[in-house]
């Protein structure tokens, strides 16, 4: 029907052109941002899932840093106890030498002086070993293995993105045992200003050998706790890396645009825009046909 008031062909062409323009705008936005989902209107359910996945990957990335920092802290502590082990070995050598009948009083006095210095250094290690500005074994003044970061019986590491993903390490119990054993092995460990008498005679030197063996065992146990915790944190890191990679890939499948497919969609919409514009122009000329009948 030819009509001056209603041009149905033009209205249809305008509606099609508007729809095509909206689709073309969506394609251009996706291609410019690189994301398939730029608002909840694009994919409401997909955006919700991708947001949860993103929160998980971000949490796991922080947890990975936590595990690496935890390993570094454990390695710092283990290195300190490695030096304590070397000191105890030297003290045991001195005690063994002082315990023999061929050692004179002057020899024992000289060995006692070195023994006392070694005891002071063990105290220095326990007091001053720190990580990131925080004392690990002590508050800086005591040698009892108290008030340091590793003094707690429940040292907790956050090893995942959720609240329940934690790892507890009991280092405080063994640290106390180590401090006690070191105090038994050397008088200058606890009272640096008072010379010791561990090597004053062959009898006392012989007796301290067993004490030093006990101290070595306690330090070895502490090092094994630190090593076991470090190994676990290393496995945690590897697992987090695996989960993070796969979670990131899942989020990418939801959020990232497929450039090959979207480029084809854009080309199609551009061609439809050109065709729609041309047809709109043609439909607008149909009203003139009605006027031609009145001439």
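^ Assign residues to that structure.
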């Amino acid at each position: 029907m030819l009509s001056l008031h209603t041009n149905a062909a033009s209205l249809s062409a305008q509606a099609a052109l508007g729809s095509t323009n909206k689709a073309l705008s969506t394609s251009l936005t996706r291609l410019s941002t690189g994301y398939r989902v730029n608002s909840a209107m694009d994919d409401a359910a997909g955006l919700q899932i991708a947001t949860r996945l993103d929160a998980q990957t971000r949490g796991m990335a922080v947890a990975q840093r936590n595990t690496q920092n935890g390993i570094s802290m454990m390695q710092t502590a283990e290195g300190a106890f490695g030096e304590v082990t070397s000191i105890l070995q030297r003290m045991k050598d001195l005690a063994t030498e002082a315990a023999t009948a061929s050692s004179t009083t002057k020899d024992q006095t000289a060995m006692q002086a070195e023994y006392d210095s070694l005891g002071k250094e063990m105290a220095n290690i326990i007091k001053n070993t720190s990580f990131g500005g925080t004392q690990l074994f002590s508050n800086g003044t005591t040698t009892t293995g108290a008030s340091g970061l590793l003094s707690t019986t429940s040292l907790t590491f956050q090893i995942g993105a959720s609240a329940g993903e934690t790892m507890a390490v009991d280092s405080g119990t063994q640290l106390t045992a180590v401090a006690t054993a070191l105090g038994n092995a050397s008088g200058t460990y606890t009272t640096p200003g008072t010379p010791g008498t561990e090597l004053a005679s062959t009898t006392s030197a012989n007796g301290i050998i067993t004490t030093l063996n006990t101290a070595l065992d306690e330090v070895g146990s502490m090092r094994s706790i630190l090593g076991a915790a470090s190994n676990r944190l290393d496995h945690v890191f590897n697992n987090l890396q695996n989960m993070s990679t796969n979670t990131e890939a899942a989020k990418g499948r939801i959020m990232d645009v497929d450039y090959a497919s979207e480029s084809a969609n854009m080309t199609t919409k551009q061609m439809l825009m050109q065709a729609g514009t041309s047809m709109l122009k043609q439909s607008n000329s149909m009203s003139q046909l009605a006027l031609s009948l009145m001439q």
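The longest helix spans residues 44-98.
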